[in-house]
Amino acid sequence: MSKPVLEHSTSRGKIVQLIQKTMKMLLLWLGLTGLIGIATESAWAHGERSQEPYLRTRTVQYYDVHYDKQSVKVNEEFTLIGRFRLMEDWPDAVSLPDTVFLSAYSPGPMITRVESYLNGMPARQSFSKLELGRDYEFKLVMKGRVPGRHHIHPLLSIHGSGPLVGPGQWIEVTGAKGDYVQKVTTMNGIEVDNLEFYGTARALKWYAVWLALAAFWLLFWLVRPLLLPRWIALNKGREDVLISNRDITVGVILGVVVVAISFGGYMYAKHEYPYVVPLQAGTNKVDPLPKPAHSVDVKVLKASYDVPGRAMHVTARMTNHGTEAVSILEFATANLRFVNTQAPGADKAISADYPRDLVARGGLGLSDQKPLMPGETREIKFEASDALWEVERLVSFLTDVDSKFGGLLFFVDKSGNRLMTEVGGPILPTFTAL
Ligand SMILES: [Cu+2]
């Protein structure tokens, strides 16, 4: 008789072993994913790299973006300023910026947007009909809410196209979530200590009232014989027994109670809050920044992407319509920056607060460094080579049906004034080493 017992205990042991094995594997997997996460911290960002390159290189080009702080306490404010150019060569597949909303992108509600402006105008609402080929300036005042290290971006949401983000910066929020408050004074002088929970208790009470009434009405019918007995009664022609006088009385009373509560609640709210401003849903209009007085015309003659060398080569005919000689300072696209280190002021081109993971170490190579004189037209070849093209997953233009690139080319004169020109056009991949 001992055999079955033995067998039984063996199979039990096997199950225990299996559970232990599974737990070990799970722990190992958790440990590994944690390690990978630590090793590639940007993997914790929110998938900005998975956005199609034509969206990132040919729609909104952010530039001059600054974050005034990289570490804030809960409740402490920080400011995010910058500019963007809406590219003239906007992709056909993307909706035009006819309805646009400005905000910041964060992994969940980790920060609070306190103020936002587009070209100095409050940006509480969406803006309509932004102009292609023009520049806009934004300012976002944010406030730390949930402690942690969060990747924050400026964000332009375009109706029909989705979110288009600017360069993301890691912002450390320190302190305790419990300390977070959002104090406001309403237009009629009422002080609200914490907007986070303002009115939620009252809303929950109302939920409770309606849930109780609904539950009562449901139970009132559920306690009686339900479907089959009623169906049989119906078949026997006894509709009269289905709804009694008591049912009708209760129904009428409930109806009166619901109307009384609704109307009474409305009257009470009207009396307690005589001034109510509804959520503003209309769009605003804003003029773009004025066009700069001078410009450099850039006509792309040839563009190719060298796949093994991870380098973009562009040959362009450039004409300086300005009054000063200018040098090429920078090529920027999809928040990546390729700086020509030999240009005047190149060392100051990228501010200390700009995310370093978006700066190409390879810089920008030029076929000739001679400044472009006023009125001069010359063919110049520039090369933006860096592994960032791959890291940032910007090379799927190789497989796009609309293989085009876009970006901004910055020029600088000897006094440090910058001129900016949109560049772009069809691009061809070269798969073999040159
Ligand atoms: Cu991010």
Task: Give an account of the 3D structure.
By secondary structure, this protein is α+β, with helices and mostly antiparallel strands. It has four domains: 2-39; 50-187, Jelly Rolls; 197-272, Helix hairpin bin (Helix Hairpins), CATH 1.10.287; 296-430, Sandwich (Immunoglobulin-like), CATH 2.60.40. The protein is built from six helices and 22 strands. The protein has helices at 2-39, 53-58, 200-222, 227-235, 245-272, 388-391; strands at 60-67, 71-73, 77-86, 99-105, 111-118, 121-122, 127-128, 135-144, 148-158, 162-165, 169-174, 184-185, 191-192, 296-306, 311-320, 327-333, 336-339, 364-366, 377-385, 404-412, 418-426, 428-430. The strands form five sheets. Strands 2, 4, 7, 9, 10 and 11 form a six-stranded mixed sheet that branches. Strands 1-3-8-5-6 form a five-stranded antiparallel sheet. A hairpin with a 2-residue loop joins strand 5 (111-118) and strand 6 (121-122). It starts with a helix and ends with a strand. Residues 1-9 and 35-43 have low confidence and may be disordered. Copper (II) ion (CU) binds at residues 45-46, 48, 151, 153, 168.
